[in-house]
Amino acid sequence: MFDKSTWIKLPRNVVVGHGVIDELGETIADLHLTGDPLIITSPTPNELAGDRVRAQVPGAETIIVETASFESIERVIETAQAEEADYLIGLGGGKPIDIAKMAADEINCGLVSVPTAASHDGLVSGRSSIPEGDTRHSVAADPPLAVVADTEIMAKAPWELTTAGCADIISNYTAVQDWRLANRLKNVEYSEYAGALSEMTAEMLVDSADSIKPNLEESAWIVVKALVSSGVAMSIAGTSRPASGAEHLISHQLDRIAPNQALHGHQVGVASIMTEYLHSGNDGQWRAIRKALKSIDAPTTAAELEISDDDLLEALTTAHEIRDRYTILGNGVNLDAAYQTATVTGVIERD
Ligand SMILES: NC(=O)C1=CN([C@@H]2O[C@H](COP(=O)(O)OP(=O)(O)OC[C@H]3O[C@@H](n4cnc5c(N)ncnc54)[C@H](OP(=O)(O)O)[C@@H]3O)[C@@H](O)[C@H]2O)C=CC1
Ligand SMILES: O=C(CO)COP(=O)(O)O
Ligand SMILES: [Zn+2]
């Protein structure tokens, strides 16, 4: 008997373009969302775009969050505003959107995602990435009902946020390799469609690298489309596997060892140079990944991340512990191998 089933949750409306933040009210009406919204945002996005969002949803309350953590989510859902909210609006980068996603799940209401930076592929995904103690959870949550991505706002954001988004996409190459490896060695379920979509997204972004330039709104357009596509791959897969492998484990570990030092996307980009080397050795594609990162101005070394060599090596040797996700890191990379990997790939300099 055929007994497979799947339930793919995707956003209903994805609105991308110049000035579309002013179409937020229309987008909400199109979804038939009624009642009181609550805006979840962080300081900079609130300052930059909070008033334009509030103008579209008069009377909406705002909660400002600073960090992605389960405490932040608890704090949000325990407020009187959250109790009374009929739907949430997540405004900002990856952190406030992840918190809003989880909070919407907890209070069982819809979410509209309004990203202010093209810095991460969580703007559409049905996942939240939340640290807790020594670990980092990739939690299933309903994806946003709608995404309103204003390329004018995103293009004005600091350039490094856009290059971080590009690097988050480029890291899909190694994430998919890790996923296939886990399928072969641990029988982890693999989706050909999600894997192919994720790889194709990285391929198309790299092919467009020449058009991705600072102060060019077209760049934000190209990157947002890739971020949406990568988020959809995660939703099809029902896991973040298409976009998160060993390179993400290393980045999550760096967040613990050297907090707030570098952007998520930049960390995963540098880490993917090393995990590509671990997958395929010196003849593999690690130089192509480094070249792709360089072509969009993303960091390729620990020094450019402003992370010390010791912190980088600690992250590489301990990243396998952070989550039960089988990757090329296996049961751990020892210090000599980590040093070899990081120096051969030029991520750190030889002593
Ligand atoms: N759920 C998922 O599938 C995914 C989740 N993620 C998660 O997302 C996070 C990374 O996303 P990222 O966006 O880098 O993180 P943040 O939300 O921390 O944003 C990065 C920085 O950019 C600032 N910022 C945001 N928008 C603007 C703007 N328009 N102009 C100027 N500054 C701006 C933020 O300000 P402020 O400090 O005020 O917030 C913050 O300092 C990580 O926690 C990661 O794990 C990443 C990918 C996928
Ligand atoms: O950042 C992600 C994809 O780009 C997903 O994060 P996780 O590694 O926590 O699943
Ligand atoms: Zn990521």
TrEMBL record:
Q: Which family does it belong to?
A: Belongs to the glycerol-1-phosphate dehydrogenase family.
Pathway as given in its UniProt record:
Membrane lipid metabolism; glycerophospholipid metabolism
Q: Mind telling me what this protein is named?
A: Glycerol-1-phosphate dehydrogenase [NAD(P)+]
Q: Which gene encodes it?
A: egsA
Keyword Membrane on entry:
no
Gene Ontology biological process terms in this record: glycerophospholipid metabolic process; phospholipid biosynthetic process
Q: Spell out where the chain crosses the membrane.
A: none
Pfam families registered for this protein in UniProt: Fe-ADH_2
Q: Which Gene Ontology cellular component annotation is one that this UniProt entry carries?
A: cytoplasm
What is the superkingdom listed in this entry's lineage? Answer: Archaea
- The residues that hold substrate are D121, D168, H252
What is the free-text note on the cofactor? Binds 1 zinc ion per subunit.
* UniProt binding sites for Zn(2+): D168, H248, H264
